[in-house]
Specification:
The chain has twelve helices and 14 strands. It is elongated. It has two domains: 214 residues, Rossmann fold; 66 residues, Alpha-Beta Plaits (2-Layer Sandwich). It is 36% helix and 27% strand. Bound molecules: adenosine-5'-triphosphate and magnesium ion. Magnesium ion binds next to helix 1.
Length: 327
């Protein structure tokens, strides 16, 4: 049996710049496979190669056994693509967008109307089908985009950051929709830079950074890694000289980083560390002016997985899942 998606040594150079660096992975039938990585990691470039939009510089990829370069017609006929930039026509109605897509796929009139009706009902857009998409919310537009990708009876759905920039309710709805479609047998490949999203809906997750896959794992394994890189950040009114050494010595603290006037204590037990800090502060007669518990950032997880230091930009862009408790 072939895999739903298979990539071998897939590589993309833009001039001299290596955007995707000899990545290999397989996606099983019926799986929701997440491609998790920070900005510029190579997620969109990979999706573009897998969907035949961009030609790989090296390597091969296949969809349901069809080589994406040599058998692109067959491969494309069984895939749906939701690109990172909306491909919805704002001036057309939701209905017209779907019908137009159906025509592009060469689907018969009766079939495309039936399919458009089913999809619009599924996405709760049927009542608004004749309105121009221009007046739709971002979440509604994204749903039209996904519906368009499903017009051709797709067996593999590619979603490039399907929930980015959407309100909480739309995010929830789209994730639910993806799960439901998957239950009906659709294989899903999605990119995200959101750790929580990857954890919530993916069966397996590949972590990509700077064009390379750092790890392919189940969310549970990833969660274990994440648990070990939680942290508590504290700042004191008057900081004694040797506070770093003291903080390192607290129970459940694995390491301490100084960030400006704050100290970040890495731990897998934030509640224990909070208690330890209070006790320490009382003993030393220190006044904590802020204490935050922070979830792991994508950067933390990468560092843990690869042991490599990430660049400042990645640090800035990817403080995900922070859970702040100010006092
Ligand atoms: N057409 C292009 N020409 C030159 N460089 C490109 C091109 N497309 C992408 N790149 C570069 O390749 C790298 C990977 O880009 P890509 O869009 O695949 O990242 P991404 O993981 O999708 O990022 P994001 O989370 O921002 O969408 C980036 O450094 C980007 O600047
Ligand atoms: Mg992208």
């Amino acid at each position: 049996m072939n895999n739903a998606i298979s990539a071998s040594e897939l590589t993309k150079f833009y001039g001299d710049f290596l955007a995707v660096d000899h990545i290999s992975f397989t996606v099983n039938y019926g799986e929701i496979f997440g491609f998790l990585g920070p900005n510029g990691a190579g997620k969109t470039t990979t999706i573009r190669m897998l969907t035949g939009v961009s030609t790989p510089t090296e390597g091969v990829a296949s969809i349901m056994g069809y080589d994406i370069v040599r058998q692109s017609v067959e491969a494309k006929s069984i895939m749906g693509i939701v690109p990172d930039i909306s491909n919805v026509y704002d001036e057309l109605s939701a209905w017209a967008n779907l019908i137009f897509t159906g025509k592009l796929y060469g689907i018969s009139k009766a079939k495309r109307e039936e399919r458009a009706t089913d999809l619009l009902k599924l996405f709760n857009l049927f009542d608004r089908r004749n309105e121009r998409v221009r007046g739709f919310s971002r979440g509604m537009k994204r749903k039209v985009c996904i519906a368009m990708a499903l017009m051709n009876d797709s067996r593999v759905l590619f979603l490039d950051e399907p929930t980015s920039g959407l309100d909480v309710e739309s995010v929830r709805e789209i994730r639910q929709m993806v799960r439901m479609l998957n239950k009906d047998g659709l294989t899903v490949f999605l990119t995200t830079h959101n750790l929580e999203e990857a954890n919530q809906i993916c069966d397996r997750i590949a972590i990509i950074n700077k064009g390379k896959i750092a790890a392919v794992d189940t969310p549970e394994k990833l969660r274990q890694t994440m648990r070990s890189v939680q942290s508590v950040e504290v700042a004191f009114r008057d900081t004694p000289q040797d506070v770093v050494e003291d903080l390192k010595g607290l129970r459940a603290v694995s390491s301490v980083e100084k960030r400006g006037d704050k100290y970040r204590l890495i731990t897998d037990e934030p509640t224990v560390v909070l208690q330890e800090i209070w006790t320490y502060a009382q003993r030393m007669k220190l006044t904590p002016i802020s204490i935050n518990t922070l979830g792991p950032s994508l950067e933390d997880v990468f560092m843990k997985l690869t042991g490599r230091e990430m660049e400042e930009e990645i640090v800035r862009n990817n403080r995900m899942g922070e859970n702040r408790t100010r006092r």
